């Protein structure tokens, strides 16, 4: 018989040979941790009754020939020394010794939804705390670990990883890859043997390797089936793995990827992993996405849900480095008339910043460009009823800058050893663990925020870390922690200033940076076609209100593609909307169109920023159908990304509606080209009609014939 632990209790495990279990629960799920011989998650899935004791026999496994003589559990912290041949949870040494620790559970503290497990190996003089917490409402699991050096000399940490097993039937994984202007590309592949590994060594979350993996059975899709989604909340180097053991057991592993000698624990010092966030659901990818969104809204973001996110205008693609106060004020007047609510002055405002090769680090207003400072511009913007935001890139330094000339030693690197590191965008990185550099930045930013009425900072980071040395030791990890501290310290001084996390677009998008910022610049690519894919990938983990999404000019600056206003407007509508172009001199019809999409965004903003997002299947892989719903209104976009595969658009079925309710369909926006793609439109497109929910769910409606790179916006309203 097992003895489930009682709630909110602290235990010292007995030496009894009986197996003991923890049964944690959240709204829909149960998570079972078997405590002996070493803590291991043996079940995470749909909830079952915790009143009945679990028996060890249920988990007893056969032992095959030519293997170790006992079954080795897949532990929360797998140990080579215990006989686990997979990827260990801990690797390190003490001057070449204490490299193979085997831990014993020494204490457990648990409640209905959380547990802290303490493990110790006195021979290696190491202790581990494993923290497990289920968010009771959203089912999100948070997993984190701490390693403590209880010895009397230094312990070098090579690896310290979080391990999450998943079911053998989950033989597909969805992973994320990309590059600048092409972030969050998804890849769904079978996971049969061996495994998948993703290493990010770029020193920021990166465009290339978003730290997330989704594992699922091949039959699972947006609407149905089991899904396990995992995100590793960390803005630095990482290693993610999805592994299949030779016996078929599977697990995800996530860790901060450490450079040699980067983490050395002195006696009594500890090292913490970042947090792994995971969701299990048996209702498909939409359910996983909605749970992550709810969790971000309730537990990651420090942004009151009652606050409205203003529509942005950003100057970057409208004027780049060509800053002229009068021109900026003209831009502000023009965009205020369109309904913009916050004006962000991008790169180019500070001392000698005439192009990308110089001046980073000199965070003072350039009096050549702004003889009277920024105040007249800010005042003008405020008088128009808009908030003012300012671009900064605090972690960076140009060699052609006053700060670098005065403090070359503030640069992150190994230059004193004679190495030459490559520049990135002609710039270098300030060593945030250098206290003088750190203090200089904090004071510079504090002064800017104190002297100007700044509601918003766009915090950019435009290069990767190479040879990141602090006092000659590797400093990738420490630099990331110091960045968090810098933002935290600044926020403590200016709690009401909102911050956007940008890194050449989507190079720093993760939950840990979002804890201290408010939205992301999703991508430098404002091309609506590219944005459809980027936003789709990002939205698995992030709700639309943190996804900066701008309407750009007709011709995209990053791809040279041209798109009509409708495709651009509908695409930007489903995020945190903004505009980014030179509005002065735009033709009246283009200006009216901008105002219209901004108006639509404001009209539906409460729904867009608080509703439940979903994706729907289509018979055409080039058709993306997605939307957002609350109890009364469903807003839906149908985007045709490439030439339709078939002559007919297929059927639109809406399982997100209530079967016993009736809905009116309105076409809020459609491409003007519809008149040439169809001689006859489906009846529901000609006049507003109402339909019964169960019929829309089961039978659905014929979709129109659409041109490539066009979109249509519909609403379904309860009648
Ligand atoms: C990269 C950002 O992603 C752009 O939006 C812009 O802010 C530039 N940096 C400015 O240098």
Automatic annotation (TrEMBL):
<dbReference type="InterPro" id="IPR013785">
    <property type="entry name" value="Aldolase_TIM"/>
</dbReference>
<dbReference type="InterPro" id="IPR031704">
    <property type="entry name" value="Glyco_hydro_36_N"/>
</dbReference>
<feature type="domain" description="Glycosyl hydrolase family 36 N-terminal">
    <location>
        <begin position="39"/>
        <end position="265"/>
    </location>
</feature>
<dbReference type="InterPro" id="IPR002252">
    <property type="entry name" value="Glyco_hydro_36"/>
</dbReference>
<protein>
    <recommendedName>
        <fullName>Alpha-galactosidase</fullName>
        <ecNumber>3.2.1.22</ecNumber>
    </recommendedName>
</protein>
<keyword id="KW-0326">Glycosidase</keyword>
<dbReference type="InterPro" id="IPR017853">
    <property type="entry name" value="GH"/>
</dbReference>
<dbReference type="InterPro" id="IPR038417">
    <property type="entry name" value="Alpga-gal_N_sf"/>
</dbReference>
<comment type="similarity">
    <text>Belongs to the glycosyl hydrolase.</text>
</comment>
<dbReference type="GO" id="GO:0004557">
    <property type="term" value="F:alpha-galactosidase activity"/>
</dbReference>
<dbReference type="Pfam" id="PF16875">
    <property type="entry name" value="Glyco_hydro_36N"/>
</dbReference>
<dbReference type="Pfam" id="PF02065">
    <property type="entry name" value="Melibiase"/>
</dbReference>
<dbReference type="InterPro" id="IPR000111">
    <property type="entry name" value="Glyco_hydro_27/36_CS"/>
</dbReference>
<keyword id="KW-0378">Hydrolase</keyword>
<dbReference type="InterPro" id="IPR050985">
    <property type="entry name" value="Alpha-glycosidase_related"/>
</dbReference>
């Amino acid at each position: 018989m097992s003895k489930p632990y009682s709630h909110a209790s602290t235990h010292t495990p007995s030496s009894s040979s009986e197996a003991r279990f923890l049964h944690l629960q959240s709204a829909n799920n149960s998570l079972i941790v078997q405590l002996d011989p070493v803590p291991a998650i043996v079940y995470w899935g749909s909830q079952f009754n915790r009143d009945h004791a679990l028996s060890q026999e249920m988990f007893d496994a056969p032992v095959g020939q030519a293997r170790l003589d006992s079954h080795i559990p897949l532990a929360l912290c797998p140990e080579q020394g215990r006989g686990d041949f997979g990827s260990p949870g801990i690797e390190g040494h003490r001057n070449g010794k204490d490299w193979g620790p085997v831990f014993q559970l020494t204490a457990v503290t648990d409640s209905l939804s959380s547990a802290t497990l303490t493990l110790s190996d006195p021979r290696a003089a190491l202790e581990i705390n494993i923290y497990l917490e289920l968010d009771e409402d959203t089912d999100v699991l948070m997993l984190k670990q701490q390693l403590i050096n209880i010895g009397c000399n230094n312990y070098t940490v090579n690896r310290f990883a979080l391990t999450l097993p998943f079911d053998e039937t989950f033989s597909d994984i969805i992973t994320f890859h990309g590059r600048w202007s092409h972030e969050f590309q998804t890849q769904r592949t079978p996971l049969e043997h061996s495994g998948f590994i993703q290493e990010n060594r770029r020193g920021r979350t990166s465009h290339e390797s978003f730290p997330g993996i989704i594992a699922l059975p091949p039959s699972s899709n947006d609407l149905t089936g089991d899904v396990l989604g995992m995100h590793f909340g960390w803005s630095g180097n990482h290693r993610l793995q999805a592994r299949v053991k030779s016996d078929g057991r599977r697990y995800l592993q996530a860790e901060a990827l450490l450079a040699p000698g980067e983490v050395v624990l002195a006696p009594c010092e500890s090292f913490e992993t970042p947090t792994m966030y995971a969701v299990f659901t048996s209702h498909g990818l939409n359910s996983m996405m909605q749970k992550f969104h709810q969790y971000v809204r309730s537990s990651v973001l420090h942004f009151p849900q009652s606050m409205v996110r203003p529509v942005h205008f950003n100057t970057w693609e409208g004027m780049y480095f060509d800053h002229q106060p009068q021109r900026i004020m003209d831009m502000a007047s023009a965009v205020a008339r369109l309904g913009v609510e916050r004006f962000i002055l991008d790169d180019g405002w500070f001392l000698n910043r005439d192009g990308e090769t110089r001046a980073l680090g000199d965070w003072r207003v350039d009096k050549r460009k702004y003889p009277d400072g920024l105040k007249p511009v800010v005042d003008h913007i405020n008088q128009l009823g808009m908030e003012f935001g300012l671009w900064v890139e605090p972690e960076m330094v140009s060699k052609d800058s006053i700060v670098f000339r005065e403090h070359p030693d503030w640069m992150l690197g190994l230059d004193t050893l004679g190495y030459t590191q490559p520049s990135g965008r002609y710039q270098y990185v300030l060593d945030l663990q250098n206290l003088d550099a750190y203090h200089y930045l904090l004071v510079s930013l504090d002064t800017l925020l104190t002297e100007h009425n700044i509601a918003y900072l766009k915090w950019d980071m435009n290069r990767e870390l190479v040879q990141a040395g602090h006092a000659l030791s590797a400093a990738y990890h420490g630099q990331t922690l110091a960045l968090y501290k810098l933002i935290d310290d600044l926020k403590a001084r200016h709690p009401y200033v909102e911050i956007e996390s940008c890194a050449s677009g989507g190079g720093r998008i993760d939950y840990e940076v979002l804890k201290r910022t408010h939205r992301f610049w999703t991508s430098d690519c404002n091309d609506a076609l590219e944005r459809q894919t980027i936003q789709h990938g990002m939205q698995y983990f992030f709700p639309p209100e943190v996804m900066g999404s701008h309407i750009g000019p007709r011709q995209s600056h990053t791809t040279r593609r041209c798109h009509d206003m409708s495709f651009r407007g509908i695409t930007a509508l489903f995020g945190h909307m903004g505009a980014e172009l030179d509005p002065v001199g735009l033709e009246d019809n283009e200006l009216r169109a901008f105002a219209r999409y901004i108006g639509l965004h404001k009209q539906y903003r409460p729904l867009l920023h608080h509703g439940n997002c979903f994706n729907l299947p289509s018979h055409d892989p080039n058709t993306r159908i997605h939307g957002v719903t609350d109890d009364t209104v469903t807003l839906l976009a149908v985007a045709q990304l490439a030439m339709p595969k078939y002559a007919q658009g297929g059927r639109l079925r809406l399982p997100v509606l209530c079967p016993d309710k009736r809905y009116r369909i309105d076409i809020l926006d459609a491409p003007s080209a519809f008149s040439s793609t169809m001689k006859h439109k489906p009846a529901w497109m000609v006049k507003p009609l109402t339909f019964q929910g169960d019929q829309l769910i089961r039978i659905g409606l014929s979709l129109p014939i659409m041109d490539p790179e066009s979109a249509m916006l519909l609403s379904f309203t309860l009648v």
